[in-house]
Design brief:
This protein is mainly beta and 391 residues long. The chain contains 2 helices and 31 strands. The chain is globular, with a radius of gyration of 27 Å.
């Protein structure tokens, strides 16, 4: 609640939480009953707002206006407003103390995002324009209005964003950054079995950089029923490496799922489901060599989950990101845009990944001797065969 009081003319200024309109009422100050009726501020007029009476007003340029209230119960500061017809709506507040940075009165968080779509959750306090911009070159990829009421907004990007790059959600009026996200490239939907419902593939975006020992990928899983004992579901992380950033070999299934048909290597791990619960998760670490030639390399994954007792197989979608660079203090740097010349050969990239850990199994090298590779071939066959048990 934004509440300001000016003792000079005994006016209490507030903001209507439904409409975000600036309203006022006469008030005698602390100790007096709060007013129950407020009137709308219909404009910045010198007769009503003057420096002599404790207010400083500037006529708006375009749609922006500034109202400075130096005497307040909760501190002093600047109310930033936008004009909506004959009324003014609050769009931000800049405190007189501290750094003085503008703060939007709406908040946003990206809850799901890919290179083509994003779902943004807004805590809206007024109709304000926002942009989705590239953090590297500041190019604008979307312009829209903050919803009048809190909720979700689905955004479509044309052309598509670059996977692995950082994008910012920016308040157009104040220039304040509300959120940032790193989109993944996704192919298809999850492929569920009768008992296993996997979630979409996930990875730790901030660790997708050269020299990272903490990069990992995995998925959640929901079982159709709980078990009295802890369950460990044998799983595999299929990995395809594309130094040139090209798309992986993917077969789309009739039910909407997808299969990564030519992974370069696989990493076995287990999805753990606690006793008494239907929910579980699992993942595998994939350390990235500290080689600048890997910057811009596309990594594509698919998580395959099996239940040997039920003889069922399920899989996530196919999901991809790009390897970024790193600053001297260890922060991730967004990779370059797609369609750039590759810096490293496919064979060299595979050797770098294979040298980082011993649990990776090359599908091409161990077709007959590796149990994991044999299982991968069988799983691919099961996923690609029509008529499998699916929900």
């Amino acid at each position: 609640m934004y509440l300001r009081y000016n003792a000079a003319d005994r006016r209490l200024y507030a903001v209507d939480q439904r409409s975000s309109e600036i309203v006022f009422a006469q008030w005698q100050g602390p100790g007096s009953p709060l007013p129950s009726v407020f009137s709308r501020v219909i404009g910045f007029h010198q007769a009503s707002f003057s420096a002599k009476r404790g207010f400083i007003a500037r006529p708006p340029i375009g749609v922006a206006g500034v109202l400075i209230i130096p005497d307040g119960i909760h501190g002093t500061g600047t109310l930033l407003a936008t004009q909506d017809g004959a009324t003014w709506k609050l769009s931000g507040f800049r405190s007189a103390a501290g750094s003085g940075r503008a703060r939007s009165v709406w908040a946003c968080r990206s809850v799901e995002h890919s290179i083509s779509t994003a779902r943004l959750r807004f805590e809206a306090k007024g109709t304000v324009m926002f942009q989705v911009i590239d953090s590297v070159d500041a190019s604008v990829h979307y312009v829209g209005a903050v919803p009048a009421d809190p909720g979700y907004l689905d955004v479509n990007f044309q052309p598509a964003l670059t996977p692995g790059r950082t994008y910012l959600v920016k308040d157009v009026l104040l220039g304040a950054i509300q959120d940032s996200f790193v989109p993944k490239q996704r192919f298809g939907d999850v492929t569920a079995s009768i008992s296993i419902q996997p979630g979409r593939g996930q990875l730790i975006d901030r660790h997708a950089k050269i020299g990272s020992q903490l990069f990992s990928a995995g998925a959640t899983v929901t079982m159709s029923s709980a078990s009295s004992t802890e369950r460990s579901l044998p799983s595999q992380l299929w990995v395809a490496v594309a130094p040139g950033g090209q798309d992986p070999a993917v077969v789309m299934l009739p039910g909407g799922g997808a299969v990564l048909t030519a992974p370069d290597f696989i990493v076995p791990f287990d999805c753990l489901v606690r006793s008494g619960s239907t929910y579980g998760s699992g993942g595998a670490f994939l350390p990235i060599a500290n080689d600048p030639g890997l910057i811009g390399t596309k990594l594509c994954f698919q998580v395959v989950i099996t239940d040997r007792e039920l003889n069922e197989v399920a899989a996530t979608d196919v999901f991809c990101t790009l390897i970024g660079g790193v600053t001297q203090d260890g922060r991730r740097v967004s990779p370059p845009a797609l369609n750039k010349p590759k810096r490293i050969s496919h064979e060299h990239a595979l050797r770098l990944f294979k040298n980082q850990a011993t649990r990776k199994v090359s599908v091409h090298e161990a077709l007959g001797s590796s149990k994991s590779a044999v299982r991968a071939r069988k799983i691919r066959k099961l996923l690609l065969t029509p008529g499998q048990k699916k929900k």
